[in-house]
Design brief:
mainly alpha, 5 helices, 82% helix
């Protein structure tokens, strides 16, 4: 075992705790070359997983645009909900009408 690998692991652990996962991964790989990759492969994997999860966008730019604008407020929400309810009622009415017309056509035949 190399004495130079222990400071690498300590530094990598410190970087990992500071959420600097890419730099920590590099140091773990250097330590793995000296000590054996089997000793640090889990640490490297954890760094890679943390990098992947940190690159996931935290907010949707489309929804944040509307949420921060004047378009999205309580009044518009109520208007949209009312419009949706009216649309749903019309849809149900049209469906009933088509079913009645279909029944009339079937009775004529």
């Amino acid at each position: 075992m190399s004495k130079t690998s222990f400071p690498l692991i300590k530094k990598a652990n410190s970087l990992f705790r500071k959420n600097e996962f890419e730099q920590a991964e590099l140091l773990y790989k250097q330590a793995g070359e000296q000590l054996g990759m089997h000793l640090v492969e889990t640490s490297i994997w954890l760094c890679q997983q943390r990098v992947k999860s940190s690159k996931v966008p935290q907010q949707n730019p489309i929804t944040s645009k509307y949420a921060s604008s004047d378009l999205y407020n309580a009044e518009n929400f109520v208007k949209l909900k009312t419009q949706l309810n009216k649309t749903q009622a019309l849809l149900e009415d049209y469906y009933k009408q088509t079913q009645n017309l279909k029944l009339q056509l079937m009775q004529r035949a």
